[in-house]
C-alpha cells in the first residue's frame, strides 16, 4: 500500500518572527529540510505492494522530479537503507530501524504484545493492534498464529481505513465532519466485488461500527479473507487503537466471528485499556 499523500516539500528556509505594534512575537522561526522531506516520502512509498522501485516509480509515488528522486534513492543506498541492482531499488534490513524507533519507545505495543499473544492462543488465529495514520490503519503489534499460510498484514503493514475493519473502528472515533472530509479526499477503489467504496456506504459502515462496538470486513480486501476489529480506548474514553483478528473465511464464518471471537477480542481490548 502507498500513502495517500507525501510530506510537503519545502525549500530550506528560516523566517523571522513577526511582531505586532506592541512588540509581541506572533510567529516562531520555522525551519524545513527539503531533502529530508523528499527522502521520507520515498521511504513511505515502499510497502506490501511496492517492494521495489525504479527512479520513475519513486518520482511518481513521492510526487518528485526524476532528478530529485534519483538523488534521494542513491543517498539511501549510500546510507545502507536500500540496495540497487542497476535498475531497481529495494529496502535493506537497516530500514527496520526507522519503525523500530517507534516500537521501542512507545508503551502501547509493549503493553499489548503479551495480551495479543494470549488472545492468539485462545482463538488460534493471528491477532493485531493498529493505529490510524493519515487514512491508513498501521499495524504496530501482532501475535502470529503458526500456519502454513499466514493471514492478514505484517507488523508495520498499512491498510486503507475506509474498507478495513480496523480502519472503520479507528475512523469511528473521530467527529463525523472530520471523517467525511477524509473520505472525500482519498480515492476509493474496489479491491474485490464486495468492497464498499462509496462515501455513503463507508459512512454507514463506520457509524455501524461505532454503534456496535466492532467492525467486520467480509472479503472486502481479498477474496477468502475476513477480519473483525474492536476499539481500544484510553482513560478518557478516546479510541487510540483497534484490536483485530484475521481469518480465512472458508474456515471461520462471520457468525463464528461474532459469537465466538468477539467476546475474546473485547476482553483483550479491555485488558489493554486497563494497562494504559
From TrEMBL:
SUPFAM superfamilies: GAF domain-like, Winged helix' DNA-binding domain. Residues 94-276 form the IclR-ED domain. Pfam families: HTH_IclR, IclR_C. Keywords: DNA-binding, Transcription, Transcription regulation. GO terms for biological process: 3,4-dihydroxybenzoate metabolic process; negative regulation of DNA-templated transcription; positive regulation of DNA-templated transcription. GO terms for molecular function: DNA binding; DNA-binding transcription factor activity. Residues 1-29 are annotated as: Disordered. PANTHER family: HELIX-TURN-HELIX TRANSCRIPTIONAL REGULATOR, ICLR FAMILY, TRANSCRIPTIONAL REGULATOR. This is IclR family transcriptional regulator. It comes from Paraburkholderia hospita.
Amino acid at each position: 500500500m502507498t500513502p495517500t499523500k507525501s510530506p510537503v516539500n519545502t525549500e530550506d528556509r528560516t523566517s523571522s518572527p513577526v511582531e505586532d505594534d506592541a512588540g509581541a512575537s506572533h510567529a516562531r522561526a520555522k525551519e524545513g529540510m527539503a531533502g529530508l522531506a523528499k527522502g521520507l516520502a520515498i521511504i513511505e512509498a515502499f510497502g506490501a505492494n511496492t517492494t521495489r522501485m525504479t527512479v520513475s516509480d519513486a518520482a511518481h509515488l513521492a510526487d518528485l522530479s526524476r532528478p530529485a528522486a534519483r538523488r534521494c534513492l542513491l543517498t539511501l543506498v549510500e546510507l545502507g537503507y536500500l540496495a540497487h541492482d542497476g535498475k531497481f531499488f529495494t529496502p535493506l534490513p537497516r530500514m527496520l530501524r526507522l519503525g523500530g524507533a517507534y516500537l521501542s519507545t512507545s508503551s502501547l505495543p509493549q503493553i499489548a504484545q503479551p495480551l495479543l499473544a494470549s488472545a492468539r492462543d485462545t482463538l488460534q488465529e493471528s491477532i493485531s493492534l493498529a493505529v490510524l495514520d493519515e487514512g491508513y490503519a498501521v499495524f504496530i503489534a501482532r501475535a502470529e498464529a503458526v500456519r502454513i499460510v499466514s493471514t492478514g498484514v505484517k507488523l508495520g503493514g498499512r491498510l486503507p481505513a475506509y474498507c478495513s475493519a480496523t480502519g472503520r473502528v479507528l475512523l469511528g472515533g473521530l467527529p463525523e465532519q472530520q471523517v467525511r472530509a477524509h473520505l472525500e479526499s482519498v480515492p476509493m477503489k474496489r479491491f474485490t466485488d464486495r468492497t464498499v467504496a462509496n462515501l455513503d456506504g463507508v459512512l454507514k459502515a463506520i457509524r455501524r461500527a461505532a454503534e456496535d462496538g466492532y467492525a467486520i470486513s467480509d472479503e472486502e480486501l481479498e477474496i477468502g479473507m475476513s477480519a473483525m476489529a474492536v476499539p481500544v480506548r484510553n482513560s478518557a474514553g478516546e479510541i487510540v487503537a483497534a484490536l483485530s483478528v484475521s481469518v480465512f473465511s472458508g474456515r471461520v464464518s462471520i457468525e463464528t466471528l461474532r459469537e465466538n471471537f468477539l467476546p475474546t477480542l473485547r476482553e483483550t481490548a479491555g485488558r489493554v485499556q486497563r494497562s494504559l
